[in-house]
User: Fold this.
Amino acid sequence: MTKLILVRHGHVEGISPERFRGRAELPLTDTGRREAEATAARIAASWRPAAVYTSPLGRCVETGAAIGKALGLAPSVVLRLNDIDYGDWQGLTRDEAYARWPAEIDLWYAHPDWAAIPGGETLQQVLARVVSTVRDIVRRHPDETVVFVAHDSVNRVLLLHALELPLSRYWRIQQSPCCINEIDFGPDGWVIHSINRTGHLAQTN
Assistant:
């Protein structure tokens, strides 16, 4: 089986109070950098990954660099792990977006699987590119452990896929900054070991 250690990047501005961050370049905050270091230490103490793959956005590259340093690995950037494209909503708060697109915002939060973000991606499009990436990585690393450093949206859709749940359950999965998810993929499909593990971050705030 291939073991996938799925990590969300560390804390950035725009998480709280929340904005649609998407493809915006946002550096890790001081808290985010401490979270990345703690996550790197936790992974290095628990697994022996063969590779680290990250989204192209700086917050994931920076988190991945900390993990790679602890493991003695050079992370590889994978474009298809990029965050969801929020299109016209990017940079806006929920209230700001609602003022211009009330019906679309209501649909996003009530039925995300039906939502079409103006100028952006659907969850189905995110799922298609993420699953194709995982397929490629699993073929490249049979019976090895790999680390993915990605985003809230990317991680949620991948976890839903692994759990064989519909995209309508998107809001039912939590992905905290620098959380760790452990999942295996083998001949019989997915095995979920943990989701949104954050105990390693206890001393970072």
